Amino acid sequence: MIDYEEELNSEQRDVVRAKNGPILVIAGAGSGKTRALTYRVAYLIEQGTDPEHILLATFTNKAARSMLSRVETLVDVDLGRLWGGTFHHVGNRILRRHAELLGYERNYSIVDSEDSRQLINTCIRELGISTAKGAFPKPGVVGDVISLSANTGMEIETIITDRYRNFSRCITDILKIALRYRIRKKELNAMDFDDILLNWCALLTDFPDIGEEYAHRFEHILVDEYQDTNIIQAKILDRLAAFHRNLMVVGDDSQSIYSFRGANFAHIASFPEKYPDAQIFKLETNYRSTPEILHLANMSIVNNRHQFEKVLRAVRRKGVRPVFVPVRNVLQQADFVAQRIIELADEGVPLEEIAVLYRAHYHSMELQMELVRRGIPFEIRSGIRFFEQAHIKDVTAFMRIAVNPLDEVAWKRVMKLYNKIGDVTAAKIWDFVSSQDDPLAAVFSEAFLDHVPKAAQSGIRGFRETLRDIRDLSSVNILTEIVDAILDGGYRECMEERYGDGGSREDDLKQLSNFSSDFDSLEEFLSDLALMTSITEEESYRKEDDNHRVVLSSIHQAKGLEWSAVFMIWCSEGMLPLARALREPGGEDEERRLFYVATTRAKDHLYFCHPMTNQSENVWGREAVPSRFIAELVPTDFDPEDLPFEQWAVR
DNA sequence: ATACGATTTTTTTTT
DNA sequence: AAAATCGTAT
After folding, report:
1. Which residues contact A110 (CB under 8 A, 6 or more apart)?
2. Tell me, in Å, how far CA of A414 is from C1' of C3?
3. For nucleic chain B, which protein residues have CB less than 7 Å from any of its atoms?
4. Which chain A residues in 123-182 sit with Cβ < 7 A of strand C?
5. Does residue A577 have a cis bond before it (omega within 30 degrees)?
6. Helix, strand and coil percent figures for chain A, each rounded to 5
7. C-alpha span between A159 and A511 (Å, rounded)
8. What's the rounded Cα separation, in Å, for the pair A623 and A512?
């Protein structure tokens, strides 16, 4: 039995033991919402709900896993059948079962953003749209427009007039591309990230019996980070909860930072309108941060209008005031942060309790170099993700061909790995292969070689061998040897040639291979890869004393985490708030929420760095202005005592 | 005609 | 640093 009185505060207890029905939980930063959610799941199971009938939707797969493993220690029940993970993850799981209904094969591929950009590029060229003359958006931008339209349910025309005004001349072309892109994806038997949500929603709506089946199945639905869900996700939830109506959503409108993905914190505000009988709870006690840090965060977020009433109360004892540190330039910034990290470590703060946060990946370049120079171990949680690295994508492209021979993007990627094959030849080979009734069998036919130029023949013969090996291994589900087969099939040399550092990349592939052992089929492995960001989560393959590292992270990726000491670098106008983001509607508020999320990650120490010159602009160095989010904290009747931060001068 | 290397430009955030 | 474009060698 769980001792709820002992382990939860009264706010949390009310949530955990709330009676059934729609429930909205407004949970401030650091108020233990994960704890409440975890105990709620345990409580439901204790009350006799079968885990199979619970759906726990989280923002990352990692969050789901860590919550569920906590639940497992609370109630001694196997949660293997509980539906937990991101919307995309759960959606994929459901769609695999019903893919045929929607006109896909069951073995459909999932294309990530790089693949999708690639495919859009092909569409543009196929349509013969000239991008050279005048300003035409890059394939990536076209992809953003299409994706935003999908995630907000707004027409592409509206998206362009609202946020991409300078491309309004291109609307007809973009519409053509969007249409073609959609057709092409279907031909490739592939879904992009948005399709997973859209198709899931369509499945529940257009096939009432299936919608009902799932609505009956999920007795309880719990949603974390509700402020970052978009309209399609909200619609999916409405359908799934239509029968039992036990929908608990947890979120904080002040921490909504994903509007670029169609998230809209207005959803959370309108939840009570949609569910008039909803019970509303608030978690307002903050256990994480010192009163000083919380005070600063509160002072900042009140500058945003349109938010839920809530006051975060600190329970921790008095600590030190946050510090604002103007520095001369990026180099001095890197120097200061590194120096201060060493001092904190000397004071007894473990390195893994220190984080450096920034708005955009490239903001951390100089710091990385400085940390390397000083031998301070660190871990980067931003930038190119594990599965997006070229060599990982190369290897998985081989696998994708074996699983879904219609995957054009994978085909072309693999073909171009071989010498003497570029865009044109790859397209020719693909044209031949895709025109055959059985594309895989065609590879082994004599006719296949006729479509390959002489110079590339030997490499392509190797490809046939490799593909045969992959198919043989996957048919008996020996996944761990597939990577070796690809490496031995000539990819090892190819990798060395193309990327230089073959050794460390081969290590990555070893890791990928180890990871594959957890899966029952190649198909399942691939779709999970596409929906995941990193492999290192909770994996304890690392050496014991290797866990002490400073974390470098984008603010977005820092969501939900906490550290004793947090450094925010580049707190300058143009960088935070990011100039580009300010141009979006509602941009300033969203940037301020980012600032809020970042500050509330800190438990004890908080530092804001502001480089006063921005060298990257030109050689002379341009004046940089402190971030408005810092400046606005200074009261008009200035009294140093009232300042929520103190200011340091460095050297 | 095609492949591939050099050059230029441009950086948000993520499933 | 990576992507897109441009120019040259095969």
Report:
1. A92, A190, A191, A192, A193, A196, A526, A527, A530, A531
2. 19
3. A 59-61, 86-89, 112-113, 144, 193, 257-258, 260-261, 359-362, 382-383, 385, 416, 419-426, 453, 531, 533, 554, 556-557, 578, 580-581, 584, 616
4. 131-132, 138-140
5. yes
6. 55, 15, 30
7. 41
8. 46
Strand C: which bases are under 7 Å from protein Cβ?
1-6
Q: Give the CA-to-C1' distance from A246 to B1 in angstroms.
A: 64
Which tokens belong to A69? 């493993």
Query: A612 by DSSP, 3-state: which?
Result: coil
CA–C1' span, A620 to C4, in Å? 29
Which pTM was predicted? 0.90
- Provide the CA A391 to C1' C5 distance, Å, integer: 24
Q: Is A638 exposed, middle or buried (0-12, 13-18, 19+ CB in 10 A)?
A: exposed
Lookup: tokens for A35? 């704890």
Give residue-wise pLDDT tens across range A162-192. Answer: 888 778 888 888 888 899 899 999 999 999 9
- Identity of the residue numbered A269: A
How many angstroms separate the CA of A217 from the C1' of C7? Answer: 61
Contact (Cβ atoms closer than 8 angstroms) between residue A23 and residue A249: yes
Q: Is residue A85 packed enough to be buried (19+ CB in 10 Å), middle (13-18) or exposed (0-12)?
A: buried
Per-residue confidence at A131, pLDDT binned at 50, 70, 90?
A: low
Distance CA A210, CA A38 (A): 29
For residue A490, what pLDDT band results from cuts at 50, 70 and 90?
confident
Residues 393-432 of A with CB under 7 A from strand C: none
**Nearest one of A576, A575, A582 to A615, comparing CA atoms:** A575
Cβ pair A142, A105 in contact under 8 A: no
Give me the half-sphere count of Cα atoms (radius 13 Å) on the Cβ side of residue A19: 3
Quote the tokens at residue A202: 């369509």
Residues 327-366 of A with CB under 7 A from strand C: 365
The two structure tokens encoding residue A96: 């695999």
- CB-side neighbour CA atoms (13 Å) of A5: 0
